[in-house]
TrEMBL record, chain A:
Positions with biased composition (Low complexity): 36-50, 60-97
Lineage: Bacteria, Bacillati, Actinomycetota, Actinomycetes, Motilibacterales
Record protein name field: EfeO-type cupredoxin-like domain-containing protein
Positions of the UniProt region annotated as Disordered: 26-100
Swiss-Prot/TrEMBL keywords: Signal
Length: 192, 459
């Protein structure tokens, strides 16, 4: 009987390990969000792209703001400039001053679109290391609010226009980023 | 470093922020894959090693085990004064938070949701594991019922009708499911109107049932008392069958959980709901569920499926174990095959405890502090009754590595306790020659539960 038990141990062990590996492999295979890779902030170069902050003229149409992106597209090609909505205190930050610390600074930009109750790209994990500056840019087809759980940050999302939140990820853990009105999970921010 | 925009866009003080996703904004990071693999391998190897080296004759004596406490201590703990002290503590603390629930503002600084989801639901577990079925004493509903009975000059034990023994744990299983549904599925579950409705319904049902059936209704009908009693079986402090308070091997305590109708259902809710809590938070599930038309329905069905799956797997494995172990033929104790699931249900409790610790440890430590701090201002009027307004949440000892290690250790430890319990029950029920074969189905199921638990921690 004990021989049989050991035999089954020999058989079950690899099977279980395989199953587990398959499980974990599946989760690893999740598609990363279409965000720009962590890029060192280039204070001077990126300034034009983000310069509509801190207080843009509320009437500035989206088309108008896309012009600077086209001209200075070399630094952050895929980022449409976003601007602070009047009610969200400071969503696009001034770029860090070029002191010694700035060399370590990484800005992780995550862009999400919400249309018809559908989140694009589909909710997934975004991994950042502690201390990274995270910039979340969300465009929703209906007026909404985004909420970064745990950090308790909120950003207005006017219908059809990108709204953003920027903060330093200085607490480790997993944090849900979601919309308030529609209650959609946009992604999980993993701060390691 | 201090980021340029750190702390900007913070909620304005007193913002009408609703905790849209329940309590606690922070969750644990997924554990490293290597940790999960190590845990699974450990669980697997230890399971079969234990099967080979553990005792051949049953050792656990359940309710008969234990060394009596010193007389003086036992007399104090058993005294009516001590029981009433605990009851009054329970009444005062729950009254405090009930005030917040009923009369507080529906804003993020109201402590009521924290009291229900953190202090009660999670806090009851460590308290019970340390001291036994504490909720039996703290339960404000039981105390209210006792006070009402006293006011009407009747004994609380007396009901209008006898309670059929066939009911047993079923009301608790239903109540537990109702609570985990509130915790994990209900829309706007952290808002006061929803919590008020739920608490009012729960209290109403149980007070009426206690009036009809007497206070023994709470023993097996109250979800939180049963939850506390089951985890309390793992406490080193227990009551022997002769009524004496004893110190005992937690495994003996756990083995004293005897089969009764609804037992398997309670255990399935305990384990299945925690598993569902993990799974339903994964991006994989969320991306599916939030596209669904009826989110509440989908969530309810998912939770129900998790509970039913855990229960069915346990029942199937126990029946197969009885078959392979020839239990009905020539066991030491003639137990019919259909009772096998109940005989082995207690082995799932330590596994559920492992899940609970892994899942709620950091939440309890962090949000439990918040609950106490918020309690200083029960009506959100700016009061500071407990002098805690300026206290801050201590989080420095919650590091990703320590949490991950603790999670894996908890899950694997729960697994090992479950295996040992199943082994002892196996050698008690099955004839010598069939004991190992009889244990295999449950061993496989437990390894499965453990691997699943670890896999969920990867999400």
């Amino acid at each position: 009987m004990r021989v049989r038990a050991r035999l089954s141990a020999v058989l079950v062990a690899p099977a279980c390990a395989l199953a587990l590996a398959a499980c974990g492999g599946g989760s690893d295979g999740e598609q990363p969000l279409a965000d720009t890779a962590p890029s060192p902030t280039a204070p001077t170069a990126s300034a034009p792209t983000l310069s509509p902050s801190p207080v843009p003229s509320p009437s500035a149409p989206a088309a108008g703001t896309s012009a600077p992106a086209a001209t200075s597209g070399s630094t952050t090609p895929r980022s449409t400039p976003t601007y602070a909505t009047p009610s969200a205190p400071v969503t696009v930050s001034p770029t860090p001053s070029g002191d010694a610390a700035a060399a370590d600074d990484l800005v992780r930009e995550v862009k999400v679109t919400v249309a018809g109750g559908k989140v694009t790209p589909p909710p997934s994990h975004v991994d950042v290391t502690k201390g990274t500056v995270v910039r979340i840019i969300v465009t929703s087809d209906v007026a909404d609010e985004m909420h970064v759980h745990g950090y308790d940050l909120e950003g207005e999302l006017p219908a059809g226009q990108p709204g953003s939140v920027e903060f330093t990820a200085n607490r480790t853990g997993s944090f849900e980023v979601e919309t308030h009105e529609s209650g959609l999970l946009l992604f999980q921010l993993l701060v390691k | 470093m201090t980021g340029p925009a750190a702390g900007t866009a913070l909620l304005p003080p007193g913002a009408d922020a609703v905790l849209a996703h329940g309590i606690g904004g922070r969750q644990d990071l997924p554990i490293p894959f290597s940790y999960a693999l190590t845990g699974a391998a450990l669980a697997l190897v230890l399971s079969f090693v234990l099967l080979g080296v553990l005792w051949r004759n049953p050792k656990l004596t359940g309710e008969r085990a234990g060394r009596p406490l010193p007389d003086g201590l036992a007399r104090v703990l058993d005294s009516p004064a001590f029981a009433w002290t605990l009851r009054i503590v329970g009444l005062v603390v729950s009254g405090w938070f009930a005030t917040s629930l009923l009369f507080g503002k529906d804003i993020a600084t109201n402590p009521a949701p924290y009291a229900i989801f953190i202090l009660l639901w999670v806090g009851i577990v460590p308290l019970s594991v340390l001291f036994g079925p504490v909720w039996r004493y703290l339960n404000p509903l039981r105390t209210l019922h006792a006070l009402l009975a006293a006011a009407m000059r009747t004994r609380p034990e007396d009901g209008l009708y006898p309670l059929s023994p066939r009911v047993a744990y079923w009301p608790a299983a239903v109540g537990l499911f109702a609570f985990v549904w509130l915790e994990l599925v209900a829309p706007d579950r952290a808002t006061l109107p929803v919590l008020r409705a739920w608490v009012a319904a729960y209290a109403g049902v149980h007070l009426i049932c206690a009036a009809v059936f007497g206070s023994r209704w709470f023993d097996r009908g109250d979800a939180f008392e049963v939850y506390s009693a089951f985890f309390g079986k793992l406490s080193p402090l227990g009551r022997r069958d002769d009524g004496r308070l004893v110190l005992r091997n937690p495994l003996d305590g756990m083995a004293s959980l005897r089969p009764a109708p609804g037992l398997v259902a309670v255990v399935a809710v305990m384990l299945g709901s925690t598993a569902w809590d993990s799974y339903s938070g994964s991006t994989r599930w969320v991306s599916y569920a939030q596209q669904a038309e009826h989110r509440t329905l989908v969530g309810t069905l998912g939770l129900l499926a998790a509970v039913v799956l855990v229960g069915l797997v346990l029942v199937a494995a126990a029946l197969l174990a009885g078959r392979l172990g020839h239990v009905a033929g020539s066991g030491r104790e003639r137990v019919p095959l259909w009772q096998m699931p109940g005989e082995f249900a207690h082995t799932i409790v330590p596994i559920a405890l492992g899940y609970v610790v892994a899942h709620y440890y950091s939440l309890f430590v962090l949000e439990g502090q918040r609950a106490v701090i918020l309690a200083t201002d029960p009506l959100q009027t700016g009061a500071d009754y407990l002098g805690l307004r300026d206290a801050s949440i201590q989080a420095s000892f919650i590091t990703p590595t320590s949490v991950s290690v603790l999670q894996v250790v908890a899950v694997v430890t729960g697994h090992i306790l479950g295996v040992v319990l199943a082994h002892d029950r196996g050698v008690r029920l099955f004839p010598h020659a069939r004991a190992v074969a009889g244990q295999l189905p449950l061993l496989v199921v437990m390894v499965g539960y453990t691997c699943a638990g670890l896999a969920l921690l990867l999400e």
